[in-house]
Amino acid sequence: MDKRSSWPLDPPKGNVKRYTQPVEVMDHPESQLQNLLFDEQTIRQKFVRKVYMILMAQLCVTLAFLSLFVFNDDVSGFAYDNPALFWLAFIILFITMLIMLCFDDARRKTPINFVFLGIFTLAESFMLGIIASQFAPDEIFIAVTITAILCLALSLYAVQTKVDYTVMGGILLVCVLALLIFGIVVIIFPGRVMIMVYSCLGALLFSIYLVYDTQLMMGGKHKYSLNPEDGVKSIHFCSASNVNPKTTAPVMPNDIRTSSGAYLLAVTPTKKLSHNVNKSRQM
């Protein structure tokens, strides 16, 4: 046999110093898994905290626009005389939303993501301000208060419940399409009952969406979750779920205050609000 192939098997000759080094003991797989879960939970908690802080700033801006349009007659009158501004804001909102959803740099790269988020917030606030100017101030603040309580309760429910809503994305999408088709029917055949049913269904659907979005951010045992780098995307989802329960009724392009253009605040389906909707339908 060749000596080169057998020499590693032979014991070394001569004085050989032996060095001992401490052997690093690897953690048990369960311990490693617990550490990873702890790190994941810590990252998720910071992620959720960041999203809700920015979302609160968004809501403050929206509330400022609402107050301006509700309490300033000149601003609300200007918006009423120029209905094209509403559709301009809607187009800007829609294009900004598509850009943030389709391009990673638009929602992950700083400061581009905050620029697009700011444009989205201003356009959304302007639209809600125009909608809010069509109703009495007490109705607006009742709607905002109820929506805030509803969102808080749903967020707490999303964190504590054992039901995994993240697997319902396809079902919710189908429901949104069905609601959109029903909204077109309401535009063609307006009526108090139709508007009330449409508004309640819209509030219920987007309430479920808020639970769905919150569980996506939390991750954990849920089947699907958002990347912690998608903070702007999460803010966009929660903002849409937060605003839509307030205003879920159709609008006609000619006049915001016409029959089919009477926006209904879905969270306040009272007789007084129904009377105001019928009154605006006759204007």
UniProtKB/TrEMBL annotation:
Keywords: Membrane, Transmembrane, Transmembrane helix. Its main location: membrane. CDD domains: LFG_like. It is found in: Membrane. GO terms for cellular component: membrane. InterPro entries: Bax_inhibitor_1-related. The chain crosses the membrane at residues 51-72, 84-103, 115-134, 140-159, 171-189, 195-212. It is a multi-pass membrane protein. It holds the Pfam family Bax1-I. Belongs to the BI1 family. This is Protein lifeguard 1. It comes from Glossina palpalis gambiensis.
